[in-house]
Amino acid sequence: MKALSAQVDRFFFDRFDGRICAAFRISTGGLMLLWTLANGPNWCRDYCDDGMLFPTQSWSWVIPAWFAMVALSISYLIGWKSKWCAVALYLLHEQVLVRNQMASNAEQGMFRMQLFYAFFMPIGEHFSLDGRNRHRANHWHQDPEWWQLRTIQFHCCLIYIIGSLNKWTTDVAWQNGDAIYYAMMHEEWAKWPWPKFFYQGWATKTATWGSFVAEASFGLLCWVRDVRPFVTTLLILFHITVALTLDHVGFFSMAMACNLLCFYEWSDFEKLRNRLSLLGERSASPA
What we know:
Strand content: under 5%
Shape: globular
Structural class: mainly alpha
Order of helices and strands: HHHHHHHHHHHHHH
Oligomer: single chain
Largest sheet: none
């Protein structure tokens, strides 16, 4: 019993390198900034009183809200007043989403989740103006505890596990391997330049079942330390592929990729850097 208690204590309360939280902040902040800028031309269409909405209560702050979201996203990205920016961006995205849910493709749900958990992370300790100011003031810094990252990790695992169960039990196209075919053949969704490739049964079934297995198994494999970096990288590449080949879900898929950064440890990047350096030295040395 003591051994189990010690393992639970290490799992939640051991300390880790907080630079991975900074990577999460930078990626999500950059993505939210791109989303806000990309929606600028259609902002009034989606959220103003004279746009696509039915007659509703006037919201005179629609245009100022866009400028505020741009400014706050930049501030969050560079790490200036990071926690306050997270709170303000959460409230603004909540208001915008409630204003017109039909204008969202689930990416704002991801943004809200990221901003909520970011408030409990040390997002401003590294690679930020906040961190630089604290360093100049000689403020003492302590590495964060794992529970600050476990919360979003658990949430992501539930997304993949529940989403996979829902796909398999409610859509026969995932069972017979045709789900990717239907997506790639749909003119409104597909951006894949060679749709005829998926006329071949083996290609469609490999893509459908392969993506299903990758997502369904991640919620379990991510807790195996030796394979975690590999399955995380594989799933990030999968989400990037989805963003490039399917329309309308690009920001949502990239938001999921940003979430997966929380499953790395900073030592994973240092090991990769060392291996690349060693490979470069070997290739540069004479035979």
